[in-house]
Amino acid sequence: MSFFEGHNFFGESTAHLARLINNINTGIWEYNTTTKKAKWSDGFYAILGYQPGEIECSYHNFFENILYFHDKQIFLKATHYAGTGPAPLAQIRLLTKNNGYQWFESSALKHDDDDGQFIHGVLNNINKYKLAEFRAAEADFMAAETGRIARLGGWEIDISSMALNMSREIYNIYELYGDIKLSVDEAISFFEPAYRPVLTKAIDDAIKYCKPYDLEVLFKTAKNNVIWVRAKGIPIINDYGSCVKVRGIFQDIDIIKRSGLSMQSSINLLDDQNKRLQNFAYIVSHNLRSHAGNLKFMVNLFEETKTENDKEEIFSHIKTISDSLSATMGHLDEIVKIQSEISKERKSVAFETIFNNVIATLRANIEASDTQISADFSEVPEISYIPAYLESIFQNLLTNAIKYKHPNREPVINCYTHIHEKHVYLVFEDNGMGIDMKRFGDQLFGMYRTFHQNKDAKGIGLFITRNQVEALGGSIAVESTVDVGTKFTVRLV
To answer: What is the pTM of this model?
Structure first.
């Protein structure tokens, strides 16, 4: 016997049950598969926002007008379930009167009796929970996607067991894939040796003294890629103030860190260049004023002098001042030319070719000083560089080594190239007089700076060399000991 008659339950034995069914916020329905007739409880109408009888109670109306078309297969599969046991629950969308489609959970049960074959079902509105589920899924997706994009993951250490749990993104940063569980010590072993004790102490301090930490350290992945990472940890304490967990983040900051280091290096280089150029401007300005003042004085003196002998002597002084002024202007031209030639196209040049050209130019000086020069460019035979710059570097450093040879021994110069960490280096070693680096190290590359009583010293060669090298992004370093010799190491690229 059916529980339904029209829109209400009937039968004295079921009166109480009928009242309950019609007053709960749940939809109960019945479908006679033999007669194709459907019946709905009052609650069925109510959860859709209707009054009983306000819309047609039929299977066709439900299936075609109320059930969302994408969910039809899900509903049919659940209601016509042919397996053993209860039919699976179906989550479907139904069109309500005032709120559009909302989510419902449908359960169904087949039943046969003398009146025919029936399918009874129950509908519950789960829209709130479903939307909350979607929002949680979206939040999880956003968190995961944010972590993936930012290369950022979370981790936690349980102090009682010292078990370490890490998010998937951290494993990606480690370049570890599959079900691999790391201990705290194993996780720390991936950091570069210099940073392992730093991280170990930071974790120990977080556990013992509840001190948070935020570190930027070098890290080597499972595939031997060395990157900069950020490791941040915060202690989680219990009611008694003891640390029970340490939680934190782990982020790949390699691109940002290296860009920052490169930018800082460029800023330092520009600052250094600016200081040298200011120094250059002051020196040139001083020299030009000095030359101009001396020249004006001599011209006035020349005009006031009556005797020819005195005029000849004054004129010789004027010529000397003029030559000095011309040399100063030439030095100024050399420095300006460095900046203007930076934009020139680099070419592939052989070190040996440039070396031989410079040796040919300096042949007279080399023979006069009995200088022995050896060269080995086998490790790096050629480089992409501005040829004029490279020739100037060779000429200035070789000339410098010959000029400042030791008076008690024949000069020996060794010149070679090598590569280290993808940088190309050009090295000049000599056994000359050497330089007191403690006294003059910070002045070595200054303009018009000389440190020996050599009448040929002008103090311009090293200034020009350093500007040429650094204009192309390189650097130059000096090691020297008095009476032993000097070593110039030029990082070209």
So the answer is: 0.43
